[in-house]
Amino acid sequence: AACSGGGSKESGGSGKEDSGKGSKPIVIKFSHVTSIDSVKGKAAERFKELVEEKTGGKATVEVYPSSQLYGDNDELDALVSGNVHMIAPSVTKMVKLDPRWQYVDMPFLFKDQEHVHKFFESDVAKTLLNSDQLAANDIMGLAFWENGFKHFTNNERPIQKPEDMKGLKFRAQAGKVLEAQFKALGAGSATIAFGETYAALQQGTVDGQENTYNNMDTQKYQEVQKYMTISEHGRLDYAIFVNKSFWEGMPDDIRAQVEEALKEATELEWKLAKEENDKSLDNLKNSGKMEVLELTADERAAFEKALQPVYDEFEDVITKELIDGIRNLK
Ligand code: LMR
Fold first, then answer.
1. If you placed Cys at 26, which of 2, 121, 144, 210 could pair as Cys (CB 3.0 to 4.6 Å)?
2. CA separation for the pair 225, 290 (Å, rounded)
3. Helix axis angle, 297-306 relative to 308-318, nearest 10°?
4. Are the C-beta atoms of residues 140 and 244 closer than 8 Å to each other?
5. Pocket test for ligand 1, best of 40, 90, 192, 235 (most atoms within 8 A of CB)
């Protein structure tokens, strides 16, 4: 069951060497939606190399970036059914299975990158990765990967205060928390798959969107968005999920080597997230196409205040345990 047929367009000779000896390598199909040069794309490629190194070619990873195999709407279903074995979605998208994953969308919950790392390593984060809701769908979470803080962009006007958001329509990833966030700011939102967002911005289906510097830069949103406000109002982070039957069906020694590879790839990913987002901010600023605006402390506080209703509405859904657990790590 571990083997998948069909030639991969990914290079990597280990599979070929092995097939000569009659034992086919275990193929781990890893699907994701961002580009090959995004933070996630780079870390996925490194993971593939590490798996092949550590297993001596007994296992290989076929990485399918840029929604080429499955997009936002179907990658989770594909994992549940075992059509792919590993995905690394923005955790927001897990709302379908467990609404607590929307912790990531709670406005201004995380202070800085260190706070995010502390959370990733915390017991409260592990309860999400090992939840019954995931197990009931034959999947499990193995690790957190980071991206960064989100910022607003739009085509209509520079945004400095909550009122500037009024009447604008934004692309959102998924879920009621993001919907409520935009509503609290007087704006509208529409769920649009990541792979379709550039076109939606270009065609004016929506006026704006929110994302990390690196996602915007690697999707070239500077070509289709006039203003960006450095708002850091929410996070976009990932978790690695695997199909449980597939994972547990791997020989123990190989699974241990793959786990080791994931651990190293995760360390690299955390480093890359900061470096690549910093580089991408420079790219966005230097593009000459998008005006980049900053918020004063007072302006930021005005956004925080305007977004307070999101906590009133969703504290029970996300659970107090999780929200307080995260706040107490500060
Ligand atoms: C998005 O949809 O904006 C992100 O989840 C894309 C990603 O995977 O980083």
1. 2
2. 6
3. 50
4. yes
5. 90
Atom 4 of ligand 1 has which residue's CA nearest to it? 90
Over 50: is that where the pLDDT of 17 sits? no
Token representation of residue 125: 């984060």
Atom in ligand 1 nearest the alpha carbon of residue 209: 3
pLDDT at 9 over 60: no
Which residues contact ligand 1 via a Cβ below 6 A? 33-34, 40, 90, 147, 173, 194, 211, 215, 236
Question: Using CA atoms, how far apart are residues 104 and 135, in angstroms rounded to an integer?
Answer: 21
Q: Is the pLDDT of residue 109 over 80?
A: yes
Residue range 287-308: mean pLDDT, rounded: 98
Q: How far apart are CA 175 and CA 313, in angstroms?
A: 13
Kindly report whether the global pTM for this prediction surpasses the value 0.95: no
The amino acid sitting at 107 is P
Residue 252: phi and psi, rounded to 5, are -55, -45
Cα 62 to Cα 28, 213, 315: the distances in Å are 6, 27, 39
Ligand 1 geometric centre to CA of 90 (Å): 6
Q: What is the mean pLDDT of residues 137-159?
A: 98
User: For ligand 1, what atom is nearest to the CA of residue 93?
Assistant: 5
β-partners of residue 87 are: 31, 241
CA dist., res. 216 & res. 281, Å (int): 9
Give the pLDDT of residue 18: 42
